[in-house]
Structure formats: C-alpha cells, structure tokens
Design a protein that fits this description.
Elements (H helix, E strand, L loop, with lengths): L2 H29 L6 H14 L1 H4 L7 H13 L2 H4 L1 H23 L1
C-alpha cells in the first residue's frame, strides 16, 4: 500500500469513528424519551455501523465473525417492533455467539 493509500484509509477510519460517535451521542439523547428497548436496538445497530468500515477501506483485515454478525443484526434488529420477546431472545443469542467467539480467539 502506498503512503497516499494509507492516508485515504486513515481518513475513512477517522470518518467512521466520528460518524459512529455522532450516532451514539444522538442515540443516547434519543433514549431519554424513547421506549426502553430502543436503547438495545441502537446498540446492536452501532455494531453494524462499526463493521461498515471494512467495506470502505482496505487498510483493515476483515473480521468474518463480525461481518456475519452484521448481517444477522441488519436482518433482526427491528424484531423489537413485532415482538419484544423475540428481540430479547435475539440479543441472548448474540451474547452467546460473542462469548463462544471470545473463547475461540482467546482460549
């Protein structure tokens, strides 16, 4: 990777960090008056947004686990609108997946 390509990649990452921070701060403010389960929706959406950086820069090694989780989140994050119970089950499943992945990665 050339020096200019590296700088472009850094700019993309910096933009994503700012945009994710912007999303999180506005989500935090929104949570003040929203139904309590909207907070978890916003948090899993933040994971999805964070992984978007992989598609916009070649400077990072893609994490297939996170990319797979992103697909699942993008498909299921609005379950809360139809069934709070199903959404909570989805969150529990994600926690288990991350726990299993952590064990796989770190022993």
């Amino acid at each position: 990777m050339s020096r200019d390509e590296s700088r472009v990649g850094e700019g993309v990452v910096e933009r994503h960090i700012f945009e994710l921070s912007l999303f999180l701060i506005t989500a935090a403010r929104g949570c003040v008056g929203e139904p309590k389960l909207y907070g978890p929706v916003r948090l899993v959406d933040a994971i999805s947004r964070l992984t978007d950086v992989y598609s916009e820069t070649s400077g990072l090694k893609q994490d297939q686990f996170l990319l797979d989780v992103k697909k699942e989140i993008d498909t299921k994050k609005y379950l809360v609108m139809a069934s709070e119970r199903d959404f909570v089950v989805f969150l529990d499943e994600l926690v288990l997946k991350f726990t299993e992945e952590m064990k796989r990665r770190y022993g």
